[in-house]
Amino acid sequence: MGRSRRLAGLLLVAVALLAPGALRPAPARADITCYDFQVPAEARAVYEVLGGDPYALDEGWPPRIEATAGDGVPCDQLPELDERPAGDEPLWDPGSGLDTLPAETTSARIAEIDGATEIRVAGPEGSDDATVLLVGVATPEREPAVDYGDRPLAEQCFADEATERLRTMLPRGRTVYLETDANAETGYEEWHRHVWFKGKDDGRYYLVSDILVAEGYGVVATTRLGTARADAAQDPPADTRYRDHLRAAQGRAIAEGAGLWGSCGDQ
Question: What residues does the TNase-like domain cover (predicted)?
Answer without folding.
Answer: 104-263
